[in-house]
Write a structure and sequence with these properties.
Elements lengths: L2 H4 L10 H7 L2 H17 L6 H25 L1 H4 L17 H22 L2 H21 L7 H5 L1 H4 L1 H10 L4 H23 L2 H7 L4 H4 L1 H22 L8 H23 L2 H6 L3 H28 L8
Helix pairs in contact: 3-4, 3-10, 3-17, 4-6, 4-7, 4-10, 6-7, 7-10, 10-11, 11-14, 11-17, 14-15, 15-17
Enzyme class: transferase
GO molecular function: protoheme IX farnesyltransferase activity
Function: Converts heme B (protoheme IX) to heme O by substitution of the vinyl group on carbon 2 of heme B porphyrin ring with a hydroxyethyl farnesyl side group.
Length: about 325
């Protein structure tokens, strides 16, 4: 089915399937699925393929439910921000009640089904993740403090821990490290976006760091968090989920990330505005590659481990 047919709506505002799917924030959901899958496959306990598939599916549904509830609560500012005005609710194709009903229903379904498919620890972590993203971040932190994305970033960092818990039924230093990589990566990733989207957040009254402290301060914060992230990311190479493949990838990726952060830190607004924030946009794109490649390297080590080649053994 084509994208056009998925997003077809009638003239009176009735929504198509694509509009309901858009409520689930599929791009964010894809990151949730990938990191959760890596957490599950990197765990030292094998999981039945059917159980693994079902668990990742329910984790994805839980992530999508969080997105729908976020769009329900943020409908007012989504109507103001240019990059969100085409979403189903501000565009008038769905109501806020539609998003609330879908999000709440899918949240309960996802948690209950993950519990039935795996274990109470994984289901509990998923329930807490949904609560944290919707209540702690969306309803409270996002409109209250410029540290919103720092603390709120925990919501996006839980999926690999959930995947690990599906396999092991618990939490370990390895799953905490995967959580920490995503948690520390989130601020420089989103602050880079905020550098060239500042007017959107300002117009909507969202106290993003660029709005409350300015772009110069934001550039410093990006550098600091990048420098703090590097030893954590590289140090993970020396745990059971790491190895020489991961170490090589982490060293290269963190060198590039630090170089990019230093370049952004040294720039002033005159330079940035003159080139249309191209450097900031490149750093934002690099941040996506950075996270994906780290988890891909963890997955590669897990795959090599199946043949006795992974890790430092």
């Amino acid at each position: 089915m084509s994208d056009a047919s998925l997003n077809t709506t009638t003239q009176d505002g009735d929504a198509g399937f694509g509009d309901f799917f858009a409520l689930l924030k599929p791009r964010v959901m894809s990151l949730v699925v990938f990191t959760a899958l890596v957490g599950l496959l990197a765990a030292p306990v094998p999981v039945n393929p059917i159980v693994a598939f079902a668990s990742i599916l329910f984790i994805a549904v839980g992530g999508g439910a969080s997105g729908a509830l976020n769009m329900w609560w943020d409908a007012d500012i989504d109507r103001i921000m240019k990059r969100t005005q085409s979403r189903p609710i501000p565009a008038g194709r769905l109501s806020e009640g539609d998003a609330l009903g879908l999000g709440a229903t899918l949240s309960v379904f996802a948690v209950v089904m993950l519990f039935l498919a795996s274990n109470i620890v994984a289901a509990g972590l998923l329930a807490f993740t949904i609560f944290f993203y919707v209540v702690i971040y969306t309803m409270w932190l996002k409109r209250w403090t410029p540290q919103n994305i720092v603390i709120g970033g925990a919501a996006g960092a839980f999926p690999p821990m959930i995947g690990w818990a599906v396999a092991t039924g618990g939490i370990s230093i390895e799953s905490v490290l995967m959580f920490t990589i995503v948690f520390m990566w989130t601020p420089p990733h989103f602050w880079a976006l905020a550098l060239f989207m500042k007017s959107d957040y300002r117009d909507a009254g969202v106290p993003m760091l660029t709005v409350t402290h300015g772009r110069t301060s934001t550039r410093k914060h990006i550098l600091v968090y990048t420098l703090l992230l590097a030893p954590i990311a590289i140090g993970t190479a020396f745990t059971s989920i790491g190895g020489p493949v991961y170490l090589a990838a982490a060293v290269v990726l963190n060198a590039l990330f630090i170089k990019g952060a230093i370049t952004i830190w040294r720039r002033d607004e005159t330079q940035a505005e003159a080139d249309g924030y191209r450097t900031e946009k490149r750093f934002f794109a690099l941040s996506l590659v950075y996270l994906f490649a780290h988890f891909l390297a963890i997955l590669a080590e897990a795959g090599l481990g199946q043949f006795g080649l992974g890790g430092w053994a």
